[in-house]
């Protein structure tokens, strides 16, 4: 199996009584790539008020929801990460592509001694049977756990995304 590892960065910005969360995707240089991932938008959990905590979920379709006491604020930019999946000039055909997402709770965003774990990563499409000549769009959603009275701050971390041909 040929594979490539891509490193992604998550940044959470906060201001006032609300917080905004954004997963920024950046390309990683890999020689002789067979497929090419290009980030076209970051995942954005939007602005919210933590209150006594809960979760925020952004689905691959762009739906945003919360559980517990987390209050979602108007956030027009909230939505899933979007990547364009294409073949490089030396790409191969008739191969399925497996995208491995992090296990639940294995990724935490940190700001000082505070953190917010991410889980339930999901993509659409869920499977990629082949990469067409024109490429395709891959959307990534996730759930973020917000603690009661989560401290304001800038939260950062890395998310591994593994792409393999089958």
Blueprint of the fold:
Layout: E1 3-15, E2 18-24, E3 35-41, E4 43-49, E5 54-58, E6 64-68, E7 71-72, E8 81-87, E9 97-100, E10 107-111, E11 114-124, E12 136-146, E13 155-165
Antiparallel strand pairs: 1-2, 1-13, 2-4, 3-8, 4-7, 5-6, 5-12, 8-12, 9-13, 10-11, 11-12
Provide the residue-averaged pLDDT: 75
Number of helices: 0
Helix and strand run: EEEEEEEEEEEEE
What overall form do the CA principal axes indicate? elongated
State the oligomer. Answer: single chain
- In total, the number of domains comes to 1
Give the C-alpha Rg: 17 Å
Key descriptive features of the protein:
mainly beta, 6-stranded antiparallel β-sheet, 0% helix, disordered N terminus
Can you tell me about this structure?
The chain has 166 residues and is an all-beta fold. It contains no helices and 13 strands. Strands 3, 5, 6, 8, 10, 11 and 12 form a seven-stranded antiparallel β-sheet that branches. The protein has a six-stranded antiparallel β-sheet with strand order 7-4-2-1-13-9, with no helix packed on it. A hairpin with a 2-residue loop joins strand 10 and strand 11. The radius of gyration is 17 Å and the shape is elongated. The N and C termini lie close together (6 Å).
């Amino acid at each position: 199996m040929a594979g490539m590892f891509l490193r992604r960065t998550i940044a959470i910005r906060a201001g006032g009584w609300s917080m905004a969360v954004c997963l920024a995707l950046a390309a990683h240089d890999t020689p002789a790539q067979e497929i090419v991932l290009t980030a076209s938008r970051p995942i954005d959990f939007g602005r919210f008020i933590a209150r006594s905590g809960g979760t925020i979920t952004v689905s691959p379709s762009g739906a945003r929801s919360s559980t517990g006491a987390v209050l979602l604020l108007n956030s027009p930019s909230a939505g899933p990460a979007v990547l364009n999946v294409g073949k490089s000039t030396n790409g191969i055909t008739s191969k399925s592509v497996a995208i491995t997402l992090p296990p639940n709770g294995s990724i935490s965003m940190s700001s000082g001694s505070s953190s917010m774990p991410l889980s339930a990563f999901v993509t659409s499409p869920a499977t990629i049977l082949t990469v067409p000549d024109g490429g395709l769009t891959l959307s990534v959603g996730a759930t973020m756990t917000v603690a009661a009275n989560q401290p304001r701050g800038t939260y950062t971390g890395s998310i591994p995304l593994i792409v393999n041909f089958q």
